[in-house]
């Protein structure tokens, strides 16, 4: 085999990294959905953050937790902030005692994490399969 087979490391390692990242996101979302307390909040503003090469708007949501303390945080994620105008009432979930863990009570982030997880597994398993098939075709017939 030539040195070009080291190029197969790119999709293999990329797939492993994507799988690990999206598995972490899926577990986090699962924990927030399972252990988090649902409450109702109001969109009070939008804040821009720089992600990549363009600015992304995130809705800022104000809510009151079970202890009666009012919180206001920007909600990260793939939510289109233009869908949520100021004054819109939304359902949010947060972990008790950790108001920064707030997320919209929507299955969208969990679905995106599962999709990324499947794509990552497809990348590294596909690359591994291609390399193993190539190695098997290079083996002498006497080993079969």
Notes on the structure:
With 144 residues, the chain is α+β, with helices and mostly antiparallel strands. The chain has helices spanning 9-35, 108-138, and strands at 37-51, 54-64, 70-74, 89-95, 98-104. Strands 3-2-1-4-5 form a five-stranded antiparallel β-sheet. A hairpin with a 5-residue loop joins strand 2 and strand 3 (70-74). The longest helix is centred in the last third of the chain and has 31 residues, at 108-138. It is elongated and about 75 Å long. 14% of the residues are buried.
Query: Mean pLDDT score, rounded?
Result: 86
Question: Which structural category fits the helices and strands?
Answer: alpha+beta
Q: How much helix, percentage-wise, in residues?
A: 40-55%
Give me the count of strands.
Answer: 5
The total of helices stands at 2
Q: Which descriptor suits the 3D outline?
A: elongated
User: Which strand order spans the largest sheet, edge to edge or round the barrel?
Assistant: 3-2-1-4-5
Largest sheet: 5 strands, antiparallel
Instruction: State the order of secondary-structure elements, H for helix, E for strand.
Output: HEEEEEH
Question: Alpha-carbon distance between the termini?
Answer: 19 Å
Poorly predicted runs: none
Please give the radius of gyration in angstroms: 22 Å
Oligomer, anyone? single chain
Strand fraction: 25-35%
